[in-house]
Each structure stands twice: as C-alpha cells, then as structure tokens.
Design a protein that fits this description.
Elements lengths: L2 H69 L5 H12 L7 E6 L13 E5 L5 E5 L11 H9 L3 E2 L3 E3 L7 E11 L5 E10 H16 L16 E5 L5 E3 L11 H8 L4 E7 L2 E9 L6 E7 H45 L1
Antiparallel strand pairs: 1-2, 1-7, 2-3, 4-6, 5-6, 6-7, 8-9, 8-12, 10-11, 11-12
C-alpha cells in the first residue's frame, strides 16, 4: 500500500470515529433538548393559563359583588338599576352587566325586563333595556341552564347583534339571583368580549417573552410563540389577529375535554408548528401555546453543524498528529539502523 493510500485510509478511519463520537454527543444533546423544549413550552402554557385564570377570577369576584348588590335591592326596578349602576364602574374590563328577570316579575315592566349597564363608544357606562319579544332571553341557553342548575357558570361564546355598538362576540359569566323567598328572581350576567380576551393574551405573551428569568437561556430560539384559547368543541375563541387556530384532531379534543396537558403537531397557514396545550382551571377552555417548528428546531440545527465542524477539525488534527508520530517513528528507526 503506497503512502497516499495509507494517509487516506488513516484519515477516513479517524473521521468515522469522530463522526460516531459526534453523533453520540448529538443524540444525547437532542434527547436533553427535547425534554427541555417540552418543559419550557408546557410551562409557558401553564403560566399563560394561570395568569389568564387570575384575571378572570378577579373579574368574576367583581361581578358577584355587583349581583350581590342587586340581590339586596330587588324591591323595585329603580333600586335594581341603581344597584347595577353603582357597582359597574369597579370593573372596566367587563363590557356590561345585565339582570334578566323572570317574566312579569315586575308587573309594570311586562314580560321582558332586562336592564343592561354597558360601556358605550366613549367608555362610559349607560343603562338600556334590552329584553323584548325580539330578544326573548327566556329561550336563551344561558337562561334555561341557570334555571336548571342554579349555580354560577360561563356561557358558550356567542355573537350578539342588535345594530348598535353593543353588537359583538361575547362570553358571559352567569349568576342566578334569588329573592328573600328563595325563588330565582333573575339571571345576572357579566359580559366580556372575545376581543378583550385576545388582548389579555397578547399582554400575557409579551410579559412572558420579556421576562428575564423565564428566558435566561433561550438556546438560540427567537421566542416566536403565541397563545390562543380553545373551547371544548375545538373552536378558537381568542387569538392574535389573523391567527385563528381551530383544533379538529379527535384525540387532542378528547385530551382537552378530559382536562389533560398535551402536545401535537399542526400546519397553521402553511407553517409547520407545535401546539402545547393545558386546561384553564374551572372552565371548559384550554390555553394553547403555538411555536413554529423552525424556532424549536433551530438549536438542533446549530448543534448539529457545530458538532460536524468539530468532527472535521478533530479528524484533521488527529490525522496530522498521527502522521507526525509515524514520521518520527520512521526517522528513529532509520537513525537506529545507521
């Protein structure tokens, strides 16, 4: 075997060994990084869920205060409206509060009496009467459910339209209100808009994205995630503008309905993405943190390139050292012969 062939064989052998070492290192690194990725983004989803839950619970507590005040003033329509107005200013996040009374509860108000204190276009609260034959709230699902279960709950998201600035997409916190005889006098509701919910998500995402403790070691990621809220039927009820992400996978929906955490892969508007989801405590909703797969895979790519370069550089260095040792050994043999 001539000298050139020996050198080539030596280099190839060394390079293969270095590749095996680099491959093993990359495998170990990738396993650790996958675990870190799941912990990072599942933890992010949990933080979003906790922060959103805290905001919603605060709103619920304020709503209960409003309805407790109404419950203490069921003497007349005037006292009811005054009670509604007096407490509504305490929570500007709520679009409006209403009390939908049992038919003919106040004879002078007729069958449909539903005073609604809501924010107008200038952000000030005003009182309107929205119950009518056209808006027969007694047939609404939230009203019949309140009569049936007599406990607080959240309505399904819905679209309300009456041709005014009140029209929009809503979700409503419902609380049955009882008179001193223990009979349900009316159903109280505190409306939040899905636009408000989406804005809350944006604020939470930005807080997390700029938090130094949470993102001290981004590992070359761009932190391009965003959050959405998924209803129990898979519809996306809150999301950044232009990023509606409905969930159709039956297995994922079952996990969400069973209040489980999970991870799934999705193509969203042509972008390969990973969706990390967790339930929102006390509600039929889940928070999903969505991350472009390229952002998740960037550390793997960089690590692979770095290890490959190290393998090449290491192979060259070892080859040069081996050649020098071999040359030195041959020189010593020649010298000893002489």
């Amino acid at each position: 075997m001539n000298k050139i062939k020996r050198n080539i064989l030596l280099f190839v052998t060394i390079f293969i060994v270095m590749l095996i070492i680099a491959g093993t290192a990359f495998w170990a690194f990738s396993q650790a990084l996958r675990a870190e990725t799941n912990v990072r983004y599942t933890g992010t989803a949990l933080i979003v869920s906790e922060k959103l839950t805290k905001t919603i619970r605060t709103m619920e507590a304020n709503a209960r205060n409003v309805f407790d005040e109404v419950e203490r003033h069921l003497d007349s329509p005037a006292t009811v409206e005054k009670a509604l107005m007096s407490k509504s200013l305490t929570n500007p996040d709520v679009r409006g509060y209403f009390t939908a009374f049992r038919p003919d509860y106040f004879k002078e108000k007729g069958r449909w009496y539903e005073p609604y204190v809501h924010q107008n276009q200038k952000g000030k609260f005003e009182l309107t009467q929205v119950g009518s034959a056209r808006h027969d709230y007694t047939k609404s699902e939230w009203y019949t459910q309140a009569e049936k279960i007599t406990i607080n709950f959240w309505s399904e998201p819905y679209y309300y339209y009456d041709g005014t600035n009140i029209s929009g997409h809503y979700c409503t916190f419902i609380k049955p209100i009882f008179d001193d005889k223990g009979m349900m006098a009316c159903v109280g509701g505190a409306d939040i808009t899905l636009e408000w919910l989406s804005n809350e998500l944006l604020l939470i995402d930005e807080d997390i994205r700029t938090d130094e403790q949470l993102n001290r070691h981004p590992l070359t990621r761009g932190l391009e995630f965003y959050s959405v809220v998924i209803d129990d039927d898979g519809s996306c009820i809150a999301h950044p503008e232009g990023r509606n992400v409905p969930v159709k996978d039956i297995g994922v929906l079952m996990n969400m309905n069973n209040r489980k955490n999970g991870v799934t892969e999705m193509d969203i508007d042509g972008v390969a993405s990973t969706l990390f989801y967790v339930p929102i405590e006390g509600m039929d909703w889940s928070v999903a943190v969505i991350v472009p797969r390229k952002d998740i895979e960037r550390p793997f790519v960089y690590a692979g390139i770095a290890l490959l370069l190290l393998a090449i550089i290491g192979s060259v260095i070892v080859w040069i050292v081996c050649r020098r040792i071999t040359a030195g050994y041959k020189y010593e043999r020649v010298y000893q012969t002489i």
